[in-house]
Amino acid sequence: MQHVDIAIVGGGIVGLTLAAALKNSELSIAVIDKAACYQPLSEKPTARVSAINQANIKALQQFDVWNYLQQDRANPYTDMHVWDKDSFGDIHFSCGEMGSDALGIIVENQALVNALAEAGEAQSNVQLVTAGIERVLAGPNQTMLMLDNDEVLSCRLLIGADGANSFVRKQAGLPITFKDYEHTAIVANIKTDEPHNNVARQAFTPTGPLALLPMVAPNVCSIVWSQTPEQAASLMALDDEAFCNALTAASNSKLGMTALETKRSAFPLTMRYARQWAKDGVVLIGDAAHTIHPLAGQGANLGMQDALVLAETLSSLNASGKDIGLYKNLRSYERSRKTEAMKMIAAMDGFKFLFDGNDPFKKLLRGIGLSATDRLGTIKNAFVSHAMGL
Ligand SMILES: Cc1cc2nc3c(=O)[nH]c(=O)nc-3n(C[C@H](O)[C@H](O)[C@H](O)COP(=O)(O)OP(=O)(O)OC[C@H]3O[C@@H](n4cnc5c(N)ncnc54)[C@H](O)[C@@H]3O)c2cc1C
Predict the structure, then answer these.
(1) Domain around 164
(2) Separation of 287 CA from ligand 1 center, angstroms?
(3) Domain named FAD-binding: which ranges (predicted)?
(4) Which end of the chain is more exposed for a tag (fewer CB within 10 A), N or C?
(5) 178 C-alpha vs ligand 1 centroid, how far in Å?
(6) How many domains does the chain have?
(7) Is 50 in the pocket of ligand 1 (CB under 6 A)?
(8) Residue at 290 is within a domain
């Protein structure tokens, strides 16, 4: 049986960010994932991408992950253009307004996971383990993990970074609240007639938002088109040409005609948050603790911030000789990150409520709101700063 200080279950963006952020700690870490974290990238970019903000880019640079990132799969975006299809509401953000050269990057999730996994491989206090977990046996001072490769691992602290349907969360009996957003997200990569010019675009339509995220190729965008389940099912049933015509119309032809570069996939969207994020010997981060609507592209960003705050908490507990497994020592992490997640969930609910449907009062409100924000420097800068995670 092998012993580590910390076992992170889940080698996605968030679990691996935590391992990277513990680089300079004395803690020994195992990252366990049922699939190998590093997966060779397909020749053509895939459609599962994330907009990663500047705060998290800085962290990736600080922990030497950035150098491993395949730069031809990550595109800096400089501007954001958001408009309401049903009103005069329109707003532009530019990185120049913040004295920065990009608002963030659009990166394929697997490219980021690969960079984090390579950095983890090179990190002396980290081991990456490919195995599923069969049983979790929680004791007073340590937890034992029975792996499906017949190995047993014991740890002082078990971290659930295993995504929305977290096995660790269920095993630990940490309760969650969830709500169906009544939206399904259609994702795909598309080719457009006009170049995107590194602008991330988002159109709010009465049946849900459409995001066009600029990829490295100047005429390729990744789309996240959130629609009511009925509308999404109709769009998924269309042939490629009819789907692209609907997409071109929904995007007000901002980038001209569109054609599919990848297959379409559809994901039902659910809001979840764990009512308790930690207990003795266990703590949750990332999607295991919260999932939010992708309309503001903040799920992974929020999770990466969980990882950074938890890493700081654990490093300082360990440096001062305190027990990293005690719930009372993990409470500050739980409190601060729960508050941030709740704020984000409330903001997503607010946006969804305001932009849903055809109510004339809401149309007027969002028209005035977006246009006024576009003109008010201070509020606008606050928005940009928030989007950059600063
Ligand atoms: C359509 C869509 C678009 C999005 N766009 C953005 C965006 O632009 N920006 C943004 O910040 N966020 C975005 N998000 C959210 C973002 O994708 C997630 O928040 C993020 O990927 C969560 O990362 P994670 O590491 O917590 O979980 P996951 O990525 O789910 O990783 C969990 C890992 O745990 C492993 N695992 C699971 N169960 C077990 C087990 N029992 N044993 C071992 N391993 C296990 C899995 O194999 C996986 O590797 C989007 C989400 C959706 C649905």
Answers:
(1) 2-52+108-178+272-350
(2) 6
(3) 4-345
(4) N
(5) 17
(6) 1
(7) yes
(8) yes
